[in-house]
Amino acid sequence: MDGLVPAAGEGTRLRPLTADRPKGLVPVGDRPLLAHVFQTLVDLGVTHLVVVVGYRSDEIRAHFGESYGETPITYVEQPERRGLAHAVALAGPHVSGAFLLLNGDNVCDANLDAVVARHRETDAVATLPVERVSRERAAQAGVLAIEDDAVVGVAEKPADPPSRLIPRGFYALEERVLDACRDVEPGHTGEQELSGALDALLAAGESVETVPLEGWCVNVNTPADVERAATRLAGGD
Predict the structure, then answer these.
(1) With contact defined as beta carbons under 8 Å apart, do 91 and 103 qualify?
(2) 133 contacts: CB under 8 Å, gap ≥ 6
(3) 167: which strand partners?
(4) Fewest CB within a 10 Å sphere: which of 11, 18, 46, 67?
(5) What are the DSSP calls for 69-137, one per residue?
(6) Distance of CA 68 to CAs 42, 91, 147, 174, Å?
(7) C-alpha to C-alpha distances, 124 to 22, 102, 223, nearest whole angstrom
(8) pLDDT 10s digits, 50-87
(9) Which pLDDT score, from 0 to 100, does residue 17 have?
(10) Peptide bond preceding 162 in cis form (omega within 30 of 0)
(11) Predicted local confidence at residue 171, as pLDDT
(12) What is the pLDDT of residue 236?
């Protein structure tokens, strides 16, 4: 199974930590950020990593080389950061069958194995862990629209969130998501969003499954997030 890792961003909010290195090589605890992401995917059964790189990509290539342990890595360049769906579409030629996507800035100790298991039990085009957050936080993220306990839409950073349920940066996806990512138009954010691709698939009659997040995921965007993730990894609160 392939594991896709979008990791092309510059990480401007992580400065000064990213002034002289790519975001994926910022130390979190005893390892670079991307090493945590790779290990999570390998532990879930991924046998091939597809890593979308951009900012200072030569340093990521030099650090990890052609494999993470025994798991081969294919690198895909994203010269312009045009959204998560754009990154997924670029990686498409190197992905086969159902695949897992974990954002390259997410450090997790959560029930992601339950997400994978749930995906295998259904015919959903996507299965993802979700968390209930404040409406203010939901307005800054991808948000699910729910009717009769089913996902009926996905909105990116909506001014009026349709719910308080947000994805947590991990997705079990079917290969047909790749076509939707290639076809999606830029949204109001100006980027080609994965949420837009999933929303289009839902409108076409596909289904999206969710699993409540158990455990934790830290989206590492700021120096404070680095400290928070490192503390969690060390067993603290």
Answers:
(1) no
(2) 141, 164, 166
(3) 130
(4) 67
(5) TTEEEEEEE-SS---HHHHHHHHGGG--SSEEEE-TTEEEEE-HHHHHHHHHHS--SEEEEEEE--HHH
(6) 9, 18, 42, 24
(7) 35, 18, 36
(8) 999 999 999 999 999 999 999 999 999 998 888 899 99
(9) 86
(10) no
(11) 97
(12) 67
Q: State the first-to-last Cα distance of the chain, in angstroms, to the nearest integer.
A: 33
Residue with tokens 């307005």: 139
Structure tokens at 109: 């100790």
Nearest C-alpha neighbor of 12 from the set 165, 223, 235, 202: 223
How does strand 67-68 pair with strand 71-77? Answer: antiparallel
The strand pair at 67-68 and 165-167 is best described as unpaired
Q: Which residues pair with 171 in a beta bridge?
A: 101
CA 25 and chain centroid, separation: 17
Residues 89-99 have pLDDT tens digits of 999 999 999 99
In angstroms, the Cα distances linking 47 to 40, 52, 73, 87, 114 are 12, 17, 9, 20, 18
Mean pLDDT of the chain: 93
Q: Across 18-81, where does the E strand assignment appear?
A: 27-28, 31-32, 48-53, 67-68, 71-77
Q: Between β-strands 142-147 and 150-156, what pairing exists: parallel, antiparallel or unpaired?
A: antiparallel
Q: What are the tens digits of pLDDT across the range 187-227?
A: 777 778 999 999 999 999 999 999 999 999 999 999 999 99
Question: In the chain, how long is the greatest CA-to-CA distance?
Answer: 49
pTM (2 decimals)? Answer: 0.94
Per-residue confidence (pLDDT) for residue 97, from 0 to 100: 95
